[in-house]
Amino acid sequence: MDTITSSVPSHHTSKCNCEDCFINLIASQHLAPTICNKLYDSKKEAKFQQGEVLIEEGKNIDRFLYIKDGLIKVSQMTDKNENRIISIARPHDNITLLTFFSSEKYLYTITALEDSVACSFPYQLMLDVIKSENEFAFGILNMISFASSKVINNFVKLSSKNLRGRIASILLDFADNIYKNDSFDLPLSRKEIAELIGMTVENVIRILSEFKKDGIINIGGKSIDIVDRQKLQLIANFG
Amino acid sequence: MDTITSSVPSHHTSKCNCEDCFINLIASQHLAPTICNKLYDSKKEAKFQQGEVLIEEGKNIDRFLYIKDGLIKVSQMTDKNENRIISIARPHDNITLLTFFSSEKYLYTITALEDSVACSFPYQLMLDVIKSENEFAFGILNMISFASSKVINNFVKLSSKNLRGRIASILLDFADNIYKNDSFDLPLSRKEIAELIGMTVENVIRILSEFKKDGIINIGGKSIDIVDRQKLQLIANFG
DNA sequence: CGCGGCTTTGATGTTCATCAAGTAAAGTGG
DNA sequence: CCACTTTACTTGATGAACATCAAAGCCGCG
Predict the structure, then answer these.
(1) pLDDT of B113-133, one tens digit each?
(2) In terms of Cα–Cα distance, which of B183, B22, B27 is closest to B94?
């Protein structure tokens, strides 16, 4: 599988013009033009297909990654060589920051859940810019803090719920935060859902079937319809 | 209970001279003398008794806290109004960074587990210094990243273990990382252990008793002796 | 077609939470 | 200092929640 560092299907260097990119926003507002251009010139934009690995846990950090489009999962191996998904992230969630600063190796594996596009910047240049540009560094600081607290909150939230509550909770998450719609296609396999909320595949399936039988959701393979949102919310809150 | 913002038993302003303080290290190395002195002058050092609350979740952030001495716990309320401990931290762990940047309110409650000493700096001044001093900001960036990955790693680690494995794991943690000794006094009540690893008080006690019966540890109230480290390690790894 | 991966259901046993009851320890007021 | 109250700790019994094991259906792909 490809990573951002090896050759990928298509990438090209281009100036940044995405209006909703935080890096671009901070850079264009706070960096001197020469530095800003240097950063932009070093940018690589790459497309990744569903299932492709963008960053691999344990590899040396060589680029700073920014998710521009698509949907990704961030995961880590447990002591028992099982995968644990710590976050599902959309563009501008800046979740990749979590695996950039604290060590020389990437801490997490990042995988595309949908076809995705990521921009990347060279490690050393990124560090240089951060060390020389205050507002830029401060922006990164805020983002990393936000990203990490989100992950931690999620762990705390999940750990207080039983399995039905966890399933209900992530279904609502997908509907509210990812797809903004009560009908959507699950971007995760049953096994990945299990890895996300810390339970077995069988129980994920069992509980989804149960929700269907109870008229709370409709399922057909990966497609999900939330039928009785109120009941689902109750289960998420009190389960 | 007192917080850092209200009046506390004893605090006084003083220059920084702690050799092992990261803030002091970064400040003295990278800040201009005038700024450095301004920061030092704004410092408040305060003592906290065991059980005292240093920072309270939900309160407005008004000071940046640095743990100088002692032992603290970082906790958060769950959806169900139960407490969840997300970290036990010693001086220089910089865990307080996690609750400084990402919102206007403290995200976590910080409580002294032993008599502790904390230094604090005004919110706005800290922000000003970070925004104006690159190396300082970069140092903070590294620390926050390190602190958050530690918390996340811990959640991932714990979530892959059964209860016996979790208990074994934290006992070894205390011995190896906190007390550097196989005999120590638990700084946590049974209930707090439960809150740290996500289980009930009764089972904490049951498993501790079981370990004692099996000759793996010795317990007398809060005092713990690790007798059979190898067996404990096995349980931590495979349980 | 046949293979392999993902999904589903059922049966079974283990792990864990809950409930109940009792003991030890620690704080409180006289 | 002792009686009293409260809080922390401990053990056992029970049932619910969850994991594991086994087997079969489904579906895409060569």
Answers:
(1) 999 999 999 999 999 999 888
(2) B22
Interatomic CA distance for residues A63 and A6, integer angstroms = 11
What does each C-alpha distance from B226 to A86, B33, B58, B138, B220 come to in angstroms?
33, 49, 39, 40, 12
Rounded-to-integer distance, Cα A86 and Cα A7, Å: 27
Q: What is the pLDDT of residue A180?
A: 95
For residue B49, pLDDT over 70 is answered with yes
The alpha-carbon radius of gyration of chain A (Å, integer) is: 19
What is each CA distance from B214 to A82, A145, B31, B120, B156, in whole angstroms? 29, 44, 56, 46, 28
CA A8 / C1′ C4 distance in Å: 28
C-alpha to C-alpha distance for B185 and B214, rounded to whole angstroms: 20
- Fold for domain B161-238? Arc Repressor Mutant, subunit A (1.10.10)
Q: What predicted TM-score, i.e. pTM, was given to this entire model?
A: 0.91
Average pLDDT, chain A: 90
Task: Please give, rounded to a whole number of angstroms, the shortest distance from the CA of A9 to a CA of chain B.
Answer: 32
Is domain B11-158 in CATH 2.60.120.280, yes or no? Answer: no
CB B73 within 8 Å of CB B113: yes
Q: DSSP code of A60?
A: B
Q: Which residues in chain B are contacts of A145 at CB distance < 8 A?
A: 97-98, 100-102, 144, 148
- Residues A160, B103: C-beta atoms closer than 8 Å: no
- CA gyration radius, chain B: 19
Least confident interval from A191-200, B11-20, B177-186: B11-20
Tell me how many helices (H) and strands (E) chain B has: 8, 11
Domain ranges of chain A: 11-158, 161-238
